Each structure stands twice: as C-alpha cells, then as structure tokens.
Amino acid sequence: MLKRRQDYQPPAFLVISVFITIDIKDDATDVTTKLAVRRNPDAAADTPLWLDGQNIELTRLAIDSVELPIGQDMPDGVDVSDHGLSVAGLADEAVVEVQSRCYPQDNTALEGLYLSGGMYCTQCEPEGFRRIGYFPDRPDVMSVFTVRIEASTAFPQILSNGNLIETGAVGADRHFAVWHDPHPKPSYLFAIVVGDLDCVTSPYVTASGRAVDLKIYVEKGNAELTAHAMDSLIRSMRWDEQEYGLEYDLDLFQIVAVSHFNMGAMENKGLNIFNSKFVLADTATATDDDLHRVESIVAHEYFHNWTGNRVTCRDWFQLTLKEGLTVFRDQCFSADMHDAGVQRANDVALLRAAQFPEDRGPTAHPIRPETYKEINNFYTATVYEKGAEVIRMLAGFLGKDGFRKGMDLYFARHDGHAVTCDDFLAAMADANNVNLDGFQGWYQQAGTPQLRVRRHAGDDVSQLLLSLSQQIPDTAAQTPRNALPISLRLAFLDQQGKIVPTRLATDAAAQDEHVILLTEEHLEQRIYAPQAANLTPSILRNFSAPVVVDDDLSPDERRHIMRYDTDLFNRWDSAQTLVSDEILAIAADPQAAVNSDRIAALADGVSHILDDPNCLDYFKAAIVTLPAISVLESRMKPADPVALFNARLAFEAALAQQLHGHYQAALDPKKSAQLADTAGGRALLNRLLALAVAAGDAQADERAMAHVLDSNMTVSQGALAAVNNRPTVVRESVLSAFHDRWQDNALVLEKWFSFESMSCISGRIERLQELMQHPAFDPKNPNKLRVVLGAFMSGNPVRFYAEDGSGFEFIAGCLIDIDKRNPQLAARMALPLTRIGAYSEQRQQQMRTVLKTVQAAAQSNDLSEVIDKALV
Ligand code: BES
Ligand code: ZN
Hints:
The protein contains 27 helices and 31 strands. The longest helix has 34 residues, at 381-414.
C-alpha cells in the first residue's frame, strides 16, 4: 500500500506506559505487551485502538483484566489480521494486555527479535517492534517502557533500555532482569540483548556532574578491540556538551556489537546496537579510514540521543529531521577531530558518488519524501547526505551563534515530543527572527540544482559582471521545479594567487569572501575591485550548497586555484575537475594518445602540492585520489562505465609517469617508514605506491609484497589497493598473502573478499561463486553479501557492466535469493541495477530484461518498490 505524507492522522490512543514481558525459550519466545492507553483528544472520536503486529501469533487478549476469547469466538469490535489488531468501543482509559509468540531463531530478515552469533538482539527502527509484540508501532506514540526478560542462564547478560531495576533466578537454570526507562520513547527505540558477552566499562562524568557508566559488550574474546570505540564515545559526549550544551540523561550508556546487522548501527535509547565492524577496530585489524568511520558512527548514534530520541519524528516522512541533522552533527564533530578541509572533501565526494546518482535515477525523492510503499527503502543518501547539506546551508546562513540559538529553541519547544521538519524550520526562524520559508523548497523538491556561472565584462577593468542562474532538473519524483535558496561562497584570486578583497556594490565594504544567497532563477552580480576583470573567481567555496556548478573557468585558472586558493575544498575540487576532464577525454577516444601536454601541466600543479611542506599529507593524498566512476558517469552521455574504468586506469598510469620522482622517493624504505608513522602519511604512501605500480615500476612490486605483511592495516590494505587492478606479477601473491594471514579473522577477511570481487582481473562471476563457497562466507550475514556482491556492483564495472549482460544476470539471481531471507537488504542491494537511464540502449535493454525477472520473482514490498520504479 502506498502511504502519503499528506494523509497523516494522529493516533486514536496514546500509550502512557507499557509493561512488556519477554520469555525466551529455545523453540519460541512469548511476549506480552500490557498497555495503559488513553484516548487522544487530538484524534477523531470513536476511532478504534490499533495495535500493529506482523509475523507473530496472537495467544491471549485481556482488557481491563477481563480475559477475552481469541480465534473463532473473538468478541464484536475486536479484529485480528496479519498486520495488526483493532479494538473498538474502548473506554477513554483502559489497560490492554496482549500476548503473542515469535520465533527469533528463524528470523533471517534481521528486523524484530533475532539470533546473531548466539545472542538474541533486536532491531526495531523503523517498523520492527510489530514483529516482537502488539503495539501502536509509530513514532508519535511515546511511552514509558518497563520490560521483564526471562531467559536461560546460558545467557548471562540480559540488557534493555534505561536502568536495571531488578534481577533474580527462576528455578535452577533460568533467570530474569527488569529494566525501566524513565524517558518516554517511541517503540522504534526499544531494544533488548540477551547473550554471553564480554564487557568493557569506562566511567564518565558529565559537565554538570552526573556519573555515567559506559559499557561496550562484544562477543567473547573481542574486548581488546573496543578501546577506539570507547575513546570515540567519550569524545562525542564531551563535544556535544561543549558545542550544544547537551548532556547524557541516564546513568548507563551501553553499546553492543553484533555480527548480523542490516545497517551500520542503531541509536536505541541507552542501548545502541552496532554492526560489529563499526566497533571492533585497532590499527592492526582496521585501516585509518575504518577507525574514522568507527569514530563517526559512534558519534552519530550518540548524538541521536538528543536529535532523534529526546526530540523524535512525528512520522517516517520526517526521517531527515533526525538523520540529516545528526549526519550534519557527526560531520562537524569529525571536522573538529581531524582536518576540516579534508573532511569536507570526503563528505562531498560521498555526496557526489552516492546521492547525485540517486537524485538523477528512478528512485529520486526529496529529502522529505511525499509517498512510500516501504519505509525501509527511504534510508537513503538523499535523506541522510543531502539532508545534512540542507542543514549545513541553514547553519551557514544563520551563522554559528544563530544556528545554536535555533537548536536551543528547538529543544526548549519540543523536548519529549514527536515533531516535523516544519517545526524544526520554525524554531530556527523564530530564534533568529528571520524568514526561512524559501528553505521549504529543499524539503519538497528532488533533483540536484545546476548553478550556472558566467563572467562578462563590466564597464571597465575595475568591474566584473557575474551572471548567476539556477536550473532545477526534471526527476523521476516529478516534484515542483521552483528556484531554491542557494548559498554561494565566493572569493577572488589575483595572478600571484593572493585573495583580493572585493565589493558587491561601490559603496559596500571590501571583503575577502562573500556569501551570496541566490533565491531567484537568475541574478546579475557586479564585482568591484581595482583589477576585477583580471581576477580568478573561487566559486562555491567549501561546497556551500549541494549543487552542480557549470562555470567558465579555463584549465589554467583551475590549476591556479588548485595551487593557491585558501579554501582547501576548492583546491581539491579543482584538481578533481582537471582529472575528470582528462579521464573523460580518454574515455571518449581511447585510440587517441593520452594528451601528455595537458597531463604534464596537471602533474606540475600536483607536484607543487606534493612538495609543499605547508600542505598536510592527508590533503596531498586526496589530491592524487581519482574521482569515483559514478561521479565521472554524470559527465558522459551515454555513460560507459567500462570505458571510464579503463580510462581511469590509463590516466593514472600517465599521471604516475609524470610523478616519477615523488613515488620513487616514497619507495625508499626509509622514507616510506617515515610516512607510515602518521595517518596522513599512510594515506599518501598508499597513493604513491599505487602510482608506482601504475607506472609499472619493478621496485613497486617488491614494496607491495613487503607492505601487505606490515603490522599496520592501513599500510597492508594499501598494497592490496595498489595491485588489485594491475596485471603485475605479484598481484596474486599479495592477495593470497593477505588471505593466509587473516583467514581465521572473519572481520578482517571481509577486506580480502571485497578486493577479490572488485578486481577487474580476478573478479569474474566464477570467482564470485567460489568466494560464496568460502568457509568464511555466510549468506545470512549482510556484511558478507555486501563485500562480495555490493563491492562487485560498485567497484568492478568491467564485470558488472560486461558487454554480454552476464554481470546483470548473476546479480539478479542473487537478489531473488536474498529477497527470500532479507527483503530490506535485497532492496538496498538492488539499487545499482535500477540505475538504468544513463547507459547505452543495449545496456538498458539488458538491465530491463533482468529487472523483469526479478520483478516476477520478488516476494517483498521492499524489493518490488525499487524494481517497479526502475521499470516505469
Ligand atoms: N537510525 C539509523 C539506523 C537505522 C537505519 C536502523 C535504517 C534501521 C533502518 C542510524 O542512526 C543510522 O543512521 N545509521 C547509519 C550510520 C550513520 C553513521 C549514518 C547506518 O546504519 O548506515
Ligand atoms: Zn542516524
């Protein structure tokens, strides 16, 4: 059934408090939800009470302590279906007690209560609670939860949200625990974990002096791998106190790592549950990027305690209210912990590689969608990443203090409530006495706006005329296409590369940087400075809006910005554009010789940066990191991912030739040991090794063999990355050395799986089939499916987009199979196959044909929704 944002109705009943009992036995789990309900004065009178329930068996029903017959003799007014229970004729206040049975041991969907690696755990967001027990499973019903869980003593830990208030034995071999969470919450934040786990504890004292116990629970034997996550948690808690004045609000904060998890992590109140790959990490088993990811996910889930839990979403259309805002907060935290410019480059690279393609594809939607069939399909790059960009624009527009005032008012007004994106905008506007109505458009419209910037001569050399215009593309979402408020940060460089103060009007103050808010379709902006006509504009600094820029800068001007701009993001971005230009030229005409003059000029600029002692190694590494295929595709019509991939390899080899001196130096064992000492140095070392391999340097092979055995995972994985798509003689030895070293560590071996399936050399279909027979592969574990099939689709274009359509056919078969066990994952993994529009007629035909097969076999709403959209 299609749900519409406009159809929102408040719940007929509120649940003031709920007492849950969960009785876990080997063959089945019995659950009772005992609800104290009260009629909602805001809802239409006489509406029945609705309790969601799915894939559970109703076993008992009592109202105000009166037992009611179930089954054939069910009383009038009570109705059960396979998606819930409706009770008409209730008094304005009542106690409703419902018992049901579920089977966690058979739950492969990983929603609701399930078994993972021998422990029971739950995933309730967005609509998983209804698979555990009967309840109004919607975020605007917020209740105080108490839960009594009983299980075998083979599971010593019994965890849930809030505070532990009672424990005890039940007979010889069973025990129970009672947990109480004083903060009212929606059912999607409920969680339990029951298992035999190791626990690491750390004390924390909040700014106002509340003592909090921090606990991380992991599978036995993994306690050593939690130090980084714990440290990240403590830094996140401190940061939220300092930046937003937000403190933790319970005496206990728990994180549990589980091996089977559909997503990255989940912010259940006081009991976050994490995919183990985002908890377990040290420098021997995880790369620096992995460690950053752990840090940012720990922060993200912790930050939800306020942006998500204390103030939550009224309905799931408002998802970006908590997710966009919390991604913005975790991005700011990471920028504060590391280098802000490099962080920004990485965040924008992700936006362009993942969100822009979504916005031009069949599943395009605004950050606040208007309709959905399956809400699980809307945890998207648009809701998250574009949502965060919209918040960033607001924050930029209001300024740091103004944004903070808005946040303060948002919490003052809405703490303990379930609200909408409009409520958020209203708090921001009211706190600052400004009108933010224009920003509504960003919530309503899909599509990446295109910002066109053209320079024209002014009256004389002291003037420059900037002609700015925006164009909102047509998208599959068919949303309005009105002009949006676009923040344009702008500065000007002179021929020496210095920032020159400029004026926007003859009588205005001269400034190094301007922020122009383009609200109309078109704007003519005059720029005044002594030599205005001869300055180079630095446009959209720090990526001040989520748009595609179409400007008239020459390659010389881009090299100038790459070299001199004070905005690190724009330096990096200019390099990306120059690199993309070359790769696209090669892809368009692979026969023509690589243009060595232009590449030499580019390499000269890159050399300058590599030699500059004032540039961070992290930044240097980013400068020599090539744009993703999905980013390059946006500039080629029809897009040919295979040609782009090969062009990218050819370009990298040509660039490498020109940077001979740089990679040579890094191959020297002394220099490379020095680089390997810092995270930035390791990033640079890895890129230089890859360039050396690309250039065909014989010494590079030797270094790759040495690096793969390094005790630092970043260095070791760098060797895999360097050789994986190059036909060097050591490629297989490097990969098998890694495999043999880590074959007993399932988590680390995931890296090896992904390199194997991403390789244009070894990653053939037969190889994928072999990988799926490997003893460490588990078809029920989403991580394993992602590192084999997900990595193949996003990282191995040569095989996935193979001319004969074999890549599509193989993936289609896998999706049909996955859908039977885990619909949410199947729908998510199907997305690359649904992005048809950009490719050649022949590829589109092949993709449509296999999509029709998937459509016919799809059993779930999840998978059908995304496939149907691709086939319209
Ligand atoms: N609330 C989500 C987790 C979630 C998403 C659960 C969809 C169920 C369905 C969580 O806060 C989240 O956003 N996690 C992200 C990672 C985060 C750092 C962006 C994830 O799991 O990918
Ligand atoms: Zn989140």
